[in-house]
């Protein structure tokens, strides 16, 4: 999309901070308190903040007043006259409506369960920074241990132990109130069972809550003794139940002690693949309001009284139409877009689950189930299948499943909100609805084609709007022939259609072919002679299962940048040669013509669209079947085909070999997600994994990249298994889901030679049918007769091999997955983790090693979550500030970098909230700069926040969480808190072992740090175990002649010296000295320090020998070792900080 090139001015950046001020809040019946707010905060947002504040959290139905006037909930605080620094805002209790009562009950329920780990993103950081300290590591994280336990991934926290305030909070059966009671103000009745086993019947009226005289079988709405009316249910229960008062106060106290980032709700919840400990508990409020909407038997939406159906499209388009001229306007617009997108994604996931489970009536019930489309909560849902042969020319169902989406943020041009949800093997696309589209009262398509180029339309309004976006997307304006053989101008792919909604807005749909096609995966007879040698050497072109394979935008930009540099070099060389040979008497006009010829030649050589300046764009319709071009455009079409082939060859010859960056550890992938991120940054699609593995096999340094090879092979296996799982689940009866999933995992990973599916233990046989006359509906009771139950390990591995060959063009030569795992030293737990994350499976503990029974039973499959892919809006201004800060820091202007990062953090926090990846990144960078400047206490606070955010929004076992734990351990060590640093490093090592295993560069770093911290704590035996393992891994991944390897030898020498094994210390320091000397030379500081240390070790050896000969005079020995310990602790801190020095660079 069109990105803003300008960054916020100094004045605008200053306004961000001046926009914040402090007001005084006066709650009812309590003392006032100060609260910091922003001028851009709305009154409704302040209302929500007060509902979460510990002093006002028991209120939900109130208005805010300033000077006796009620504040408009939609107004911005900065626009309200009288609101300034120190202004007094009063919280005034309002009368209840039925909707307000339901909101209040849900709010009370959320407060009572606010510390319950179920249903929220988890964090365990405080367990390791504030908990009990033990220097001895668990046995399962020691070097050489092969056992990978799942239970420690989610340890039990003391502050998560149940603190029950009520036994039951339920909607009473006496609802709704009779007519005469409505006239008295009764809105609802609720039933409560207190911890004292006392049954309470509460009346919710317009003025609040009071106890009535009703029982389970007798309706008496009159007030009961004590006659107390409270505006808040919490206040009433505190007076009626001593246990509630005590436990609720303790609950509030626990929340105060928690880090604020642990209590904030994440915008998108992270579902852990390993189930946290805990049992299902009674929750009547949630069961009453679980969806907010129900569907009747006719499939019509029935909205409960407390829920208002949202018009997602109108909200989204209005937000995009907001002004964006100033920084404050853009911040307000970005914040609206982010919040609406977050709500939309949550609604899309909920609707996709309901549709897949059959709880939403389709609009076309007469069609086969896989072709059903539905409308739920003003969202349009469709499955990933080819309806009406729309994708027939490019691959049918496979293309429909892979249909992507793009975001175009051109002013005046509108796109639909889109999310893709994978659930139980079904892909569902959720989109906002174009106004009037479902009523079929819109005009025909006015731009593009929806029949694969048979009929093509154009419109001047869309040409004008798309002209802006086509420049940034590198799309070449071109002409195609319509059904009457007339040329039609387009500025997008022909499949992109434009319509005018009933709201008058221009919408573009079907953006799946926005980027240029990838000719490496488009096989055609006429293209065989055009294939470059670089593509042929990799075995391309290859046939793909659909024709929607396109180049990534990162590849397009990298290719254009490469051609731009080539263009500049060619033009400068030729111009330099012309100036050198130009004769003074030569006419000026001739010289000018020569220069034009030089630019024309350079443009022709690099494939520029213009013949006078550099401008490379791509025609996305060049290879699309069914598209015809005017005869005068055919030469340009051929030129575009050559350009596309050159881009495809550039990917293979430049971008895939660029993965050598992993050799110097600029990128250290740890799992499939981080590997995918690394190759995507270079513009390489995941379907090139076969080519990546081929390149890795041919590298001379392939041993140093063996971890990348293992991750790539694991990714091919798990992605192929995911594709098979998708079709496998289509034949499974709902009653057998858990048995089918466990059987699939057993066939994939179990050591049992012939896994047999579990019987569905919960199913009861029907007495109405004899055994001989069971129908199809009874087959869930007998899973071995179902298609899914006939899958075997050999069948699954055979299908994985076929899928890997067809999709990723990689050949597995092993006869079984066990053989492949052993061949490449893969980890079953890592494969299980990847498979679970990709499919949404949630599991509990397992047992791989048992060969007598399957590893998984149906009880081990706890849940299946939807896996959602969606756009992630953020602040473009803040992203630009981060880039500026990184450049400033790299040039040595650290204070300037701090200021810029502070501004970026303010923007990101305002737009996306605290719990966001970009906020975590800013905090991480700020911490590193503070640490570099020697401000370690500030660095520690910032890094702790970054680690908390990573845990909650990316997952407790995400590689970024491991990196944040490692940096936090470094800052704790620098601050002298060695035991806390040790616990964090233990946790980081456990997570790394779970993710990828012990054979990885990250383990080498962690083991070096662990060895040094343990040495500082005088745990030298443990220290040696980790340092010796680090030495082996450093030699493998950094090279036996590298400085890292020299450092490992030096650290081992330090530990052996403190143990008194001077000969071993000498041997290791000699190795270190040789490496320092060969790599850095005699004059380097490291070589000189090593030489001095070597001399000191030699002298100490001589002293020790004299001490042994004079055994009667041992009094000097303790003095010697006391001096050693003091010096070595300072030396260890120095070495630890330098070991991780490469991580500190921005």
Query: Can you give the helix content as a percent range?
Result: 40-55%
- Low-pLDDT sequence parts: 1-6, 287-307, 394-406, 768-782, 1112-1146
DSSP E strands, number: 22
Q: How far apart lie the N and C ends?
A: 27 Å
Please report the number of helical segments. Answer: 36
Morphology? globular
Secondary structure class reads alpha+beta
Radius of gyration: 34 Å
Tell me the strand order in the biggest sheet: 2-1-5-3-4
For the report, how would you describe the main beta sheet? 5 strands, mixed
Average pLDDT value?
Answer: 83
Strand content: 5-15%
Quickly describe the structure:
With 1146 residues, this protein is of the alpha+beta class. The longest helix is centred in the N-terminal third of the chain and has 30 residues, at 327-356. It is globular, with a radius of gyration of 34 Å.
Model description:
The chain is an alpha+beta fold and 1146 residues long. Among the domains are: 20-94, Ubiquitin-like (UB roll) (Roll); 104-116 and 162-289, Hypothetical protein (hspc210) (copper amine oxidase-like fold); 311-433, no CATH class; 444-513, no CATH class; 521-577 and 593-666, no CATH class; 673-753 and 789-870, no CATH class. A hairpin with a 5-residue loop joins strand 16 and strand 17 (487-490). Helices cover 46% and strands 9% of the residues. The strands form seven sheets. The chain has a five-stranded mixed sheet with strand order 2-1-5-3-4. Residues 286-522 form the Clu domain.
């Amino acid at each position: 999309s069109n990105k803003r090139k300008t960054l916020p001015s100094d004045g605008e950046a200053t306004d961000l901070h001046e926009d914040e001020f402090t007001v005084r809040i006066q709650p009812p019946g309590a003392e006032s308190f100060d609260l910091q707010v922003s001028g851009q905060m709305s009154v409704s947002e302040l209302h929500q903040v007060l509902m979460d504040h510990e002093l006002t959290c028991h209120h939900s139905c109130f208005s805010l007043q300033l000077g006796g006037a009620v504040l408009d909930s939609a107004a911005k605080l900065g626009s309200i006259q009288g609101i300034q620094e120190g202004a007094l805002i009063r919280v005034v209790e309002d009368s209840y409506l039925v909707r307000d009562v339901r909101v209040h009950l849900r709010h009370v329920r959320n407060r009572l369960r606010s510390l319950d780990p179920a249903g929220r993103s988890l964090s365990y950081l405080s367990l390791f920074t504030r908990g009990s300290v033990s220097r001895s590591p668990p046995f399962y994280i020691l070097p050489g241990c092969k056992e990978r336990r799942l239970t420690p991934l989610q340890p039990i926290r003391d502050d998560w132990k149940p603190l029950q305030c009520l036994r039951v909070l339920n909607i009473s059966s006496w609802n709704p109130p009779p007519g005469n009671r409505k006239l008295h103000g009764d809105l609802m009745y609720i039933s409560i069972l207190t911890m004292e086993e006392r049954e309470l019947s509460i009346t919710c009226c317009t003025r609040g809550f009071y106890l009535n005289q009703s029982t389970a079988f007798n309706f008496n709405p009159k007030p009961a003794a004590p006659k107390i009316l409270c505006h808040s249910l919490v206040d009433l229960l505190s007076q009626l139940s001593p246990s509630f008062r005590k436990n609720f106060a303790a609950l509030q106290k626990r929340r105060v002690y928690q880090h604020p980032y642990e209590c904030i709700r994440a915008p998108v919840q992270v579902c852990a693949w390993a189930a946290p400990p805990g049992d299902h508990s009674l929750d009547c409020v949630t069961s009453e309001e679980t969806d907010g909407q129900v569907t009747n038997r006719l499939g019509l939406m029935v909205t409960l009284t407390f829920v208002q159906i949202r018009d997602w499209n109108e909200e989204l388009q209005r937000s995009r139409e907001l002004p964006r001229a100033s920084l404050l306007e853009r911040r307000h617009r970005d914040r609206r877009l982010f919040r609406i997108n977050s709500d939309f994604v949550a609604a899309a996931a909920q609707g996709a689950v309901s549709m897949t489970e059959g709880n939403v009536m389709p609009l076309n019930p007469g069609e086969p189930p896989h072709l059903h489309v539905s409308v739920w909560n003003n969202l349009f849902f469709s499955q990933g299948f080819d309806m009406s042969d729309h994708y027939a020319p490019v691959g049918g169902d496979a293309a429909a499943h892979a249909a992507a989406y793009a975001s175009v943020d051109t002013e005046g041009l509108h796109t639909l909100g889109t999310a893709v949800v994978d659930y139980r093997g079904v892909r569902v696309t959720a989109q906002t609805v174009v106004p009037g589209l479902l009523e079929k009262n819109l005009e025909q398509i006015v731009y593009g084609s929806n029949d694969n180029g048979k009929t093509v339309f154009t419109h001047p309004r869309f040409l004008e709007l798309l002209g802006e976006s086509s420049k940034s997307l590198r799309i070449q304006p071109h002409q195609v022939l319509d059904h009457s053989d007339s040329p039609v101008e387009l500025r997008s792919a022909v499949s992109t259609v434009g319509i005018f909604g009933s709201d008058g807005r221009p919408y573009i749909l079907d953006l799946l072919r926005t980027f240029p096609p990838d000719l490496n995966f488009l096989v055609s007879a006429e293209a065989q002679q055009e294939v470059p040698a670089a593509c042929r050497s990799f075995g391309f072109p290859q046939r793909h299962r659909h024709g929607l394979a396109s180049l990534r935008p990162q590849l397009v930009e990298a290719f254009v940048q490469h051609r731009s540099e080539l263009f500049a070099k060619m033009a400068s060389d030729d111009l330099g040669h012309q100036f050198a040979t130009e004769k003074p008497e030569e006419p000026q006009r001739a010289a000018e013509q020569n220069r034009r010829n030089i630019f024309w030649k350079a443009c022709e050589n690099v494939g520029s669209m213009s013949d006078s300046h550099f401008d490379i764009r791509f025609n996305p319709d060049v290879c699309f079947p069914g598209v015809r071009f005017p005869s005068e455009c055919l030469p340009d079409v051929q030129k575009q085909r050559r350009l596309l082939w050159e881009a495809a060859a550039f990917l293979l010859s430049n971008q895939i070999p660029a993965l050598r960056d992993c050799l110097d550890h600029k990128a250290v992938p740890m799992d499939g997600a981080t590997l995918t991120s690394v190759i995507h940054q270079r513009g390489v699609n995941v379907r090139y994994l076969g080519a990546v593995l081929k390149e890795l096999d041919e590298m001379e340094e392939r041993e140093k990249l063996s971890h990348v090879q293992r991750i790539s092979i694991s990714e091919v296996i798990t992605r192929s298994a995911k594709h098979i799982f998708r079709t496998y689940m289509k034949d499974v009866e709902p009653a057998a889901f858990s048995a089918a999933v466990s059987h699939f995992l057993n066939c994939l990973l179990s050591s049992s030679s012939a896994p047999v599916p579990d019987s569905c233990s919960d199913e009861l046989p029907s007495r109405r049918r004899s055994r001989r006359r069971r129908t199809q509906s009874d087959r869930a009771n007998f899973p071995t007769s179902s298609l899914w139950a006939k899958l075997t390990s050999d069948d699954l591995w055979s299908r994985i091999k076929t899928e890997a060959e067809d999709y990723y063009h990689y050949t597995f030569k092993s006869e079984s997955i066990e053989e492949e795992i052993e061949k490449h030293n893969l980890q079953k737990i890592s494969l299980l983790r990847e498979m679970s994350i990709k499919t949404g499976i949630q599991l509990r503990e397992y047992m791989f090693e048992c060969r007598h029974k399957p590893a998984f039973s149906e009880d081990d499959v706890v849940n299946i979550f939807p896996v959602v892919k969606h756009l992630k809006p953020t602040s473009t201004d803040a992203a630009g500030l981060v880039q500026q800060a990184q450049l400033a820091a790299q040039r040595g202007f650290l204070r300037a970098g701090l200021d810029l990062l502070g501004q970026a953090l303010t923007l990101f926090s305002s737009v996306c909230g605290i719990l966001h990846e970009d906020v975590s990144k800013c905090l991480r960078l700020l911490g590193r700069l503070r640490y570099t400047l020697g401000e370690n206490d500030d660095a520690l606070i910032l890094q702790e926040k970054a680690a908390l955010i990573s845990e909650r929004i990316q997952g407790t076992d995400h590689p970024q969480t491991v990196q944040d734990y490692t940096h936090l351990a470094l800052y704790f060590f620098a601050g002298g808190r060695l035991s806390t640093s040790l616990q964090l490093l233990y946790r980081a090592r456990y997570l790394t072992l779970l993710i990828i295993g012990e054979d990885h560069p990250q383990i080498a770093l962690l083991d070096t740090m662990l060895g040094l911290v343990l040495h500082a704590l005088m745990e030298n035996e443990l220290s040696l175990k980790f340092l010796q393992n680090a030495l082996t891994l450093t030699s493998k991944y950094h090279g036996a002649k590298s400085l890292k390897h020299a450092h490992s030898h030096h650290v081992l020498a330090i530990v052996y010296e403190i143990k008194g094994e001077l000969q071993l210390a000498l041997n290791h320091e000699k190795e270190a000295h040789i490496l320092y000397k060969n790599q850095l030379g005699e004059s380097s500081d490291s070589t000189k320090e090593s030489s001095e240390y070597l001399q000191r070790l030699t002298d100490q050896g001589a002293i020790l020998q004299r001490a042994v000969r004079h055994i009667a005079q041992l009094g000097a020995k303790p003095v010697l070792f006391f001096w050693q310990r003091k010096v070595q602790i300072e030396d260890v801190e120095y070495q630890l900080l330098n070991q991780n020095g490469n991580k500190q660079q921005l």
